[in-house]
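sorry for the late reply, my laptop died twice this morning and i had to redo everyting from scratch. anyway the thing you sent over, i finally got around to it. pasting the sequence first so we're on the same page, its 51 residues, then the predicted structure underneath. double check i copied it right bc i was rushing
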Amino acid sequence: MIIWSVAAVNQLAQAKVLAESVKKEGGNCRFVLCLVAEEIHPDAQTFTCFD
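ok and here's the structure:
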């Protein structure tokens, strides 16, 4: 199953918590985030919870 969400850069921390929860509780679910920003935020590149 693929679970996805859309977030702006100022919602990145909340998106990370959601992704971690999906990974923990969702079995073999994949979490895909559509990050709305002009360029990729440096923190987003280090989060291993985003597929």
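Residues 20 and 49 are 6 Å apart (CA to CA).
thats about all i looked at so far, will dig more tmrw
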